[in-house]
Amino acid sequence: MIRVLEILVSILIVFLLAVVIGVFLPDSGHIERSVEVSNPVRQVYDSVNNFRRFPQWSALRANDPQITFERSGPESGVGARIAWKSEVEKIGDGALTIASSEPDSEVKMALDNDWSGTDKVYTITLTPSTNGRTVTIKWSYDVKYGWNLLWRYAGLYIHGTPDRLVQDSLGNLSNTLATFPNADYRDQAIEVVDVQSRPLLLIRAKVPRSLDEIAIATDEAVAKIDAVIQKAGLQKAGPLTTITTNWGAENYVFDIAVPVSSDTFTLDGKEFRIAAAPETAAAAEDADADESADATEGGTGEKVYQPGELDERGYLVVTDTIRGTLSYGGKALMTDYTGNPAALPLLRLMERAYAETHGYAYSEMGTGRPYDETISDPATTPQDEQELKVYLPVTIE
User: Fold this and answer.
1) How far apart are CA 85 and CA 328, in angstroms?
2) Where are the domains of the chain?
3) Range 41-70 average pLDDT
4) What is the 3-state secondary structure (H, E, C) of 117-170?
5) What's residue 148's pLDDT?
6) How far apart are CA 357 and CA 5, in angstroms?
């Protein structure tokens, strides 16, 4: 009996000691990790203010390749939410919801999972360097344990799984950001628009990277297309469009396109019908843009197509140089621009960076090639005052 009492007293002493120690343990937990990246601060902010690419850079998938994610709520900003389900015990089920965000400064995410504690919050703080060339990303995790002594003891292990997930996710985010085009689009308004497909007549050109050479090739192509439009009884149905295939180190390969009023017409007694080109044919041909441009210009060994046939891109052959196809239709990034066309390559780079940070897929091949519409009349508008709309086709799932 005395032995039993001794055991009970010992248990009671241990329990009381555990309670006393628990009372003096912290009632909250905090960890933080940081990394420096060379991206513009707006790229970093946009990347963490939405969850489209979260499954790629989050460390959760590395711990469970079978994990599943589901997004809900707004596309970005306050209310955007991502939930996950995992059979791995240390990951489990959970969700993140953006609770607040300050542009180019801070994003707070409320964490809902089975970790100990309440009011669990991730805070991602962005601090640009004084020279503006780098950004320090600080990722912190805060949790409250209150008077729950078991949670306070669990807090002793905050540098276990919670710490590792923050550190690994931050490293993955840094690596992902390093793959983005280093273009700062903060001051350029870019939006997602719906683009309608329409019939085009176009000519492919390959010229040295010079505005004068591009202008000459464009004028020559437009003159040829205008002549066919008049002869076939068609009408122009939209602005002059330049579709980029390859902005190379020395040469620029592109299509000069003019939207027309109908996909059917008669030319020299022959009936033509413009249809969409097979994406596989267009993409495969675009992959070797320089060679195809040489063929268009009469290079050696090219196949000679007859009017009414489909060329290597799946485009309708109208004349020896003019082709017909349907333009891209679907979602696209678009930005308005007024100024010198010399800035167009940078604008296209900005749109690619925007697509990356927002998790929009793009191919830049086939019908996914970037293009721009000349809204002003190049013949009467000064070069530095040209009005254009710049597009990048994207896929948004």
Assistant:
1) 37
2) 26-177, 198-326, 330-393
3) 96
4) CEEEEEEEEEEECCCCCCEEEEEEEEEECCCCHHHHHHHHHCCCHHHHHHHHHH
5) 66
6) 66
Predicted local distance difference test score (pLDDT) of residue 155: 56
Report the candidate in 368, 331, 46 with the shortest Cα–Cα distance to residue 180.
46
Residue with tokens 């140089």: 321
pTM of the model: 0.89
**Which is more confident, 280 or 135?**
135
Which pair of structure tokens corresponds to residue 395?
């896929």
Superfamily of domain 26-177: START domain (3.30.530.20)
Give me the pLDDT at residue 196, please: 96
Instruction: Give residue 281's pLDDT.
Output: 60
Model confidence pLDDT, tens digit, residues 108-126 = 999 999 888 899 999 999 9
Distance, CA of 322 to CA of 317 (rounded, Å):
7
Q: From residue 315, how far is each of 202, 203, 237, 252 by CA, in Å?
A: 10, 11, 19, 20
Tokens of 345: 């390559």
Positive or negative torsion for Cα 306, 309, 313, 319: positive
Q: What residues contact 187, with CB distance under 8 A and at least 6 apart?
A: none
Rounded CA separation 61/81 (Å): 17
What does the pLDDT look like over 165-192, one tens digit per residue?
999 999 999 999 999 999 999 999 999 9
CA of residue 309 relative to chain centroid, distance: 37
Which amino acid is located at 75 in the chain?
Answer: E
